[in-house]
Amino acid sequence: MSPHASTAPDRPEVPKVVVTGATGAVGRHVARLLSELAGVLPTLLVRDTAKAAALGLSGTVSQGDYRDRNSLRAAFHGADTVFIVTANPLRPQDDESILAAASQAGVRHAVKLSWLGVADPGADDLVADWNRRSERVLHESGIPWTVLRIRTPMSNTLAWAPSIREHATVQAFGGGARTACVDPRDVAQAAVQILTEPTPHAGATYSLTGPQELSARSQAALLSQALGKQLTFIDLTADQARARWADRYGEQIADALLEGARRRAQGASARIDPTLEKLIGRPPATFAAWASDHTRHFS
Ligand SMILES: NC(=O)c1ccc[n+]([C@@H]2O[C@H](COP(=O)([O-])OP(=O)(O)OC[C@H]3O[C@@H](n4cnc5c(N)ncnc54)[C@H](OP(=O)(O)O)[C@@H]3O)[C@@H](O)[C@H]2O)c1
């Protein structure tokens, strides 16, 4: 893949930023923040335009799918920078397809969302290996890059919303394991800074965490306070958790998620990293603040 593709079209004066994963946990905030900036042309690559509309996303929406190279080529035409999110560990080729389209368009910087588990030498599950491979493919693409390795987004607790609304319960495996969960809005702010002024961040891999190590039990207690409602925490057994993940994601990913949960229980996800505060120039948000901004989803 050549970094100097001769097919790069004439560029408009306003930089075009392509956001993949624009309906995802971090991508939706990247899309929103970019649309609020003057002097940037965000293009949101989404596979479901109705979902993008329901999220209130604005910008140029380009309907597409990582499996459809023509749709990628169309979205990337004239692009300057790109935010890359892939989500299927069983489709490692998605990163390659995105990078091929970006390279052909002459993209000059790619910001890739990844996982901090990559840095854990003891993590050898499918999700860690897939993220490691995706980072490698990016490094080899010839496109200048920045990697954002994140800890669990606070928004993962939205998965608890139905059982909180219906039974005032939170059901989770490994309730005592702590993780330095991060507000996806803070990650998005860092991503937008890099997408719009990439040069100082070329070749950097950033470890982005929130400001506290919190267990699922503590998160449930903070949600309970924010909602003004007593919540009961129910510990799932490993078998119950695995069965739920297998129903949702399939057997291979369920095994990887269980392995990740076991490593969390050993403290692998707890370390707080100061990098995010340095990037965004303020302390990252606490889970209490995130919860208070999202009570409507749990009520
Ligand atoms: N979630 C976590 O707990 C967590 C923790 C740390 C790091 N990470 C890392 O963050 C990255 C994203 O993972 P995630 O699962 O959390 O993502 P996510 O927030 O669920 O977002 C995935 C995005 O990709 C889009 N997408 C998926 N497949 C697509 C396809 N074939 N074509 C076009 N768009 C497609 C989704 O669109 P739809 O809305 O249409 O599905 C969605 O917008 C991964 O590298 C992951 O390892 C995740």
CATH domain class name: Alpha Beta
Kindly report the name of the CATH homologous superfamily: NAD(P)-binding Rossmann-like Domain
H-E order = EHEHEHEHEHEHEEHEEHEHHHH
Structural class: alpha/beta
Ligands in the structure?
Answer: NADP nicotinamide-adenine-dinucleotide phosphate
What is the fold-level CATH name, i.e. the topology?
Rossmann fold
Give a quick account of the main beta sheet: strands, pairing sense, barrel closure.
7 strands, parallel
Q: How much beta, percentage-wise?
A: 15-25%
Give the low-pLDDT segments: 1-8
Helical coverage, percent range: 40-55%
- Helix tally equals 12
The CATH architecture comes to: 3-Layer(aba) Sandwich
Overall radius of gyration:
19 Å
Total domains: 1
Cα end-to-end separation: 49 Å
Shape: globular
The total beta strand count reads 11
Q: Order of strands across the biggest sheet? A: 3-2-1-4-5-6-9
User: Averaging pLDDT over every residue, what do you get?
Assistant: 95
Pfam families: NAD_binding_10
Descriptive overview:
The strands form three sheets. The chain has a seven-stranded parallel beta sheet, with helices on both faces. Helix 9 (238-249) packs across helix 10. The protein has one domain: 3-Layer(aba) Sandwich (Rossmann fold), CATH 3.40.50.720. The protein has twelve helices and eleven strands. The N and C termini lie far apart (49 Å). It has 299 residues and is of the alpha/beta class. The chain has helices at residues 27-36, 49-54, 69-76, 93-105, 126-139, 161-167, 184-196, 216-227, 238-249, 251-265, 275-280, 287-293; strands at 16-19, 41-46, 60-63, 81-84, 109-115, 145-150, 169-173, 178-179, 204-208, 214-215, 232-236. Bound molecules: NADP nicotinamide-adenine-dinucleotide phosphate. Residues 21-198 form the NAD(P)-binding domain. InterPro entries: Ergot_Alk_Oxidoreductase, NAD(P)-bd_dom, NAD(P)-bd_dom_sf. It holds the Pfam family NAD_binding_10.
